Amino acid sequence: MENAEVHQVFSEEMKQPAFIHGDVTIPNIVINSDNLYLVDWDGLTIGSRYNEIAKALLNTSFFNPDHIKETLQGYEEIQSFNSAERLLISALFRLPREAWSAARNIAYGRGPRDIRILERTWDERLKAIRWLDNWALQLPNVKEDILDINK
């Protein structure tokens, strides 16, 4: 993938940013037999849909590739992602926000409590990252039932 493709995605997003929920977490999702609803729109803002998707995956998937797959399929029922968009989502998912938070807490004289979360979830995170990297490298519109996370 060329840097120009990624640059183009960012340029288009700058011209036309998305309305984003801002806090897609388990308590803000209501599911019934037919639909999924996001509630508590207090964090509604304009921002990057790719960052929003990556954060939603981090906040709701428990690093389970099946949950990640289902979430991404739901998004792609509305609009599929091209290769550059997939790469961006995968890259953003890799950022261990707990490490950034722990470093910030240390700077403010607080303990690195978020590191414990990172330690407990590390193996699952790595599996989820491998799955998402495989997804990112797929051609859009090519549907596979299962991606092998053990490769």
Strand-helix topology:
Layout: H1 3-15, E1 18-20, E2 29-31, E3 36-38, E4 45-47, H2 49-60, H3 65-78, H4 83-94, H5 97-107, H6 113-137
Antiparallel strand pairs: 1-4, 2-3
Q: Tell me about the largest β-sheet.
A: 2 strands, antiparallel
Number of helices: 6
List SSEs in N-to-C order. HEEEEHHHHH
How many beta-strand runs? 4
Shape call: globular
Report on the architecture of this protein.
Helices cover 58% and strands 8% of the residues. The chain has 151 residues and is mainly α. The strands form two sheets. It has a two-stranded antiparallel sheet. Helix 2 (49-60) packs across helix 4 (83-94). The chain is globular. It starts with a helix and ends in a 14-residue tail after the last helix. Mean pLDDT is 87; it is low at 142-151.
What would a concise description of this structure say?
The strands form 2 sheets. A two-stranded antiparallel sheet has the order 1-4. Strands 2-3 form a two-stranded antiparallel sheet. With 151 residues, it is mainly alpha-helical. It has helices at 3-15, 49-60, 65-78, 83-94, 97-107, 113-137; strands at 18-20, 29-31, 36-38, 45-47.
Protein traits:
151 residues; mainly alpha; two-stranded antiparallel ribbon; 4 strands; globular
